[in-house]
Amino acid sequence: MPEVGTDGRDSGISLQPGDYASVSGVLRLVVDEHHLQRVLDDADVVSAGRALVARLMQAGASPFSRFHNQALADAALVAASED
User: Fold this and answer.
1) Which of 18, 33, 37, 76 is the most exposed place for a label (fewest CB within 10 A)?
2) How far apart are CA 37 and CA 70, in angstroms?
């Protein structure tokens, strides 16, 4: 994965504090369109995304929970990890 900028330099990828009311200790990965595919190809990123989704779902209902389709989300994450 490309280097993540945390010192103010614009590398196209940065880590920022997450802003989740139901889950603490989350970092948000911000990626520009030039680095997106490389980041999605990283198995660790896909795994971390799965873990975050599971933590959020365990934390309880959210305003978006009625739109969540677990089978679709799982299929999307599996497809992303297979490429």
Assistant:
1) 33
2) 23
Rg (CA), the chain: 14
Tell me the residue type at 32: D
How many CA atoms are closer than 13 Å to the CA of 35, on its beta-carbon side? Answer: 17
Cβ neighbours of residue 82 under 8 Å, at least 6 residues apart? Answer: none
- For the chain, the straight-line distance linking the first and the last C-alpha, in angstroms and rounded, comes to 15
Distance CA 78, CA 81 (A): 5
CA-based nearest residue to 74, from 59, 82, 2, 25? 82
Q: Which long-range contacts (CB under 8 A, 24 or more apart) does 8-11 make?
A: none
Which amino acid would we find at residue 61? A
pLDDT band (50, 70, 90) for residue 64 = low
